[in-house]
Structure formats: structure tokens, C-alpha cells
Amino acid sequence: MPAQTETGDPLLLTPGPLTTSRSVKAAMLHDWGSRDEAFIRINAEVLARIAALAGASETHVTVPVQGSGTFAVEAMLTCFVPRDGKLLLLVNGAYGHRAAKICAYAGRAHQVLETPEDTPVDLARLDATLAGDRTITHVFVVQCETTSGILNPIAEVAAIARKHGRRLLIDAMSAFGALPLDARQIPFDAMAASSNKCLEGVPGMGFVFIRKAILEACAGNSQSLAMDLYDQQVYMEKTGQWRFTPPTHVVVALSEAIAQFEEEGGQPARLARYTLNYHTLIDGMARLGFMTFLDPAVQAPIIVTFHAPGDARYEFKAFYAAVKKHGFVIYPGKLTQVETFRVGCIGAIGPTEMEQAVQAVELALQDMGIGSGEPAI
Length: 377
Ligand SMILES: *Cc1c(COP(=O)(O)O)cnc(C)c1O
Known about the structure:
Elements: E1 11-12, H1 22-26, H2 37-53, E2 60-66, H3 69-80, E3 86-91, H4 94-106, E4 109-114, H5 123-132, E5 138-142, E6 144-145, E7 150-151, H6 154-163, E8 167-171, E9 190-194, E10 205-211, H7 212-215, H8 229-239, H9 248-264, H10 266-287, E11 303-307, H11 316-325, E12 328-329, E13 331-332, E14 340-344, H12 351-368
Parallel strand pairs: 1-12, 3-4, 3-5, 5-8, 8-9
Antiparallel strand pairs: 2-10, 6-7, 9-10, 11-14, 13-14
The protein binds pyridoxal-5'-phosphate (PLP).
Pyridoxal-5'-phosphate binds near residues 16, 142, 146, 173 and 194.
């Protein structure tokens, strides 16, 4: 019997959408009116609870935005960086490059400080660049770059940005809820995350924590009506409602997901489970001959990049289909230089499922006539 969820679907080892619990799915079996009082109450609670989770209740407001995580990142960048501002982007993967592309579309001046995909962002260069360029107003960093799974040193980045008096914007999408990120310890001005990653909700909404003290200064920055977080916040403050059709089912599912998160023991418990998932995965994959792309010292327990097997019979599409036949959905690699694939450790899954995932990979290799996962390098 291949592993599967209680709905008969394969388990998603993709970092959002991911496998959700039965009760999160069940929360969506109702229709809610967007102006309904019960919905407005649930929505307000959800936003307050995620602010508390980020230690940001006193200092920040949580402003939601419809769409996938990128919508929240784009809304954050265009709402925060004034049209005559300049953003310094710390880049070591595709999500950093995507932020640069957002700036190019939106006509925001920006500069990229890039490190290789297996190397954390460069703090010394950040410090020197800020010291040398007074026109840079904002700094952007990705906490866990999902391209490789690497963890960036955001506490150090925040300290350097603060030392130079620049505003800090964080893409915490892939790690929010699992890795610690507390506004009382790490002084950020804005941070973007979404419903469908470590909070284990369903996809459809992002949210941005905005420092209350600078909210007013964001008025008029956005050149997009739908993406204008300032406008969204002003309207929500006044009416309790989203400006345009809210993703009602996503919000109620997130409410249930947060209840489960709190029941599990919050961020430390979630990190502990994902860490166990991660070790079960990499130990099992090592037994099959696979090699991870990153040095474990810089690896977050969120998503793991593996080198592709060196065997000539290996081909990602066939491997993906074979693993799926045995009950699991994996992720293609996203690196620019090397042939890889990725496996997520997040979602409503535990070490038992990770052990089964390793078995599925073993069976897939057998199906393809591949003796070992050992890479060619
Ligand atoms: C998932 C993710 C995003 C958003 O991607 P979407 O596909 O738009 O949801 C942004 N940044 C990081 C680091 C992510 O992992």
C-alpha cells in the first residue's frame, strides 16, 4: 500500500502547497459571507494571532493580501520602498532574484548583492555597501531561501541595517511559524509570509507585518491599487473587512491551522517535528547513496536539495512519476548550475511519513533500474 492521506491523495513533500490535516480541510466545508460578522471576527482573530506569533502585537499590524506568497512580497516591496527610494537586495537564490524582478517591474531603484546558492548572504559586503551608499533606503533579505533550503543570518542582517539606519524588509515565507523570528529581538520594519507553508494552511493569502510607526509614510507609495497594503489596512481598520473579495475558505482554514499549531506547542514544537522529519529524511536518503547539496551547517530543516543520481537512467520526470506512484510528490530542483531535486520536510506529516517517503524513493530507483542515488560529482 503506498502512503497516502486519508483522502486518498499522495502526500505532498512540496513546500507549499503542502499536506494539510483533515480538520484544516474540513474547515472549508462551509460558505462564509465576506461581510458576515462571524467571518469578520475569525479574520480579526487570525491576524491578531499571527502577529502574536511574530512577537509583533505591540509594534506591527498584520495586513493580509489575496494571492500566493509572491503577491505579499510584491505588495511589501512596492508599499514600503517609496518611488524615489533605493533597495539593496541580498540574493542567494530564485526568491531574491524574484524580488529584484519585482523592483524592475515597479520602477524601484535597486542593487543586488549576490552570493552563490550554497553560501549565506555576505554580511561584510552588506556593511560596506551601506556605509558607501547613502542613497540606499531599504534592505531586503530572504530568511530561508527555498531554492536550496539555505538559512540566512537575518539577526546579523537586521543589526547591520539598524546600525546604518536603513529599513529592513524580510521574506520569511518558507520558515514563518517554524524558525524563530521575533520582532522584539530582530528589528524588522516589514516581514512577508503566507498561509500555506509552515502554518500548514491552504494557499490563497499572504500577509505582511508592518511597523505601525511607518504605516502612514507608506501612503501613496504603491502604484498598484490591488496591491496597496496601506489602502487595505485603512479599509480593514475602519470596516473589519477586506477591500475586495476575501479568500474566505483560506482564512477559516488558516484559523483551524493556527489552532492546531498552538495545540501542538507553537513554534518550538513545530521546529522540533520538522527537525525530526529532516533527520529521518537525510539519514534514509544517505543510506540510498544520495548526497545533499548544502553543508548541514547552513541547512534549514524546511526543504532539502539533493544531487540527482549519477546513473545514466536517471531523469527527473520519470523519477517524479515513480515516486508519486509510491505515494509521494516531490519537487524539481531550482538551482542554476547543478542537476538536483528537492524534498520538503514541512506539512502535516511526521517521521513515519518521512520514513515511508524514503521507501518510496527506494522503490522508485528500483523501478528505474538504478542501483544507487550516488551523484556523478
Ligand atoms: C514560497 C515562497 C515565496 C512565494 O512563492 P509563491 O509561489 O508566490 O507562493 C516567496 N519566498 C519564499 C522564500 C518562498 O519560499
